[in-house]
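User: Round two. Same drill as before: sequence, then structure, for each protein.

Assistant: Same drill it is. First protein:
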Amino acid sequence: QQELDILGQKIPLPPGAVEVEKSMSRGSNARIVIYNIDEPPALVVEYYRQFFSNNQFMVIGGQDAGGYNVSVKKDKVMFTLRISPSGQNSLLQFIW
């Protein structure tokens, strides 16, 4: 099981996730990591909904016109998760 470490908080990645970009945002200290997943967005959204619910994460936001866009918090760790379509696949973007 692949995981992404966000400030000490381990976030699992769906099977088949391939990192496509890792960067620092210009003008801020925001870190951005993007993965491509060979699954439709609906399945990836459900994967994270279950994970966040089962692990007591606070989630603000949800579905919007561009996909799934939420702010997530647990303890002192907070990040943004965006899931959007990319052809038949999904792009998964973590920002913190």
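Second protein:
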Amino acid sequence: MIRVQDISFHLSDGDVIFSHLVELSIDNYVGEITESFSKNSIPMTKVYTRLGSSAKNTSCEAFSDVCNAIDQICKNLGLNILEVNNPCNCELVDSINQTTILGEEIIIKVNDSI
């Protein structure tokens, strides 16, 4: 069974970037992200882009890939990540590890809508 963790990144302009952490098999994880969407116009169907050409050995490494990609998008647009939400629990990377990777200035939520 493939496990997936949904994570949304809320940006300083009010937009949201959605991501997945996917456990392809034991010790094989990848991150995926969408384009950014206005909080008021989130489509039901989203297209995810897989990051990197190879799987990572840990879910934290895949989460770091997602964070780095979104951070680069933010830098290019002059934005910041304000909040990270895990709407369906934290199956692969818990909130403590997310705080360690992102820093304590970013709010981490678990089981909150969107």
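Strands lie at 3-11, 15-25, 28-38, 49-50, 81-86, 107-110.

User: Perfect.
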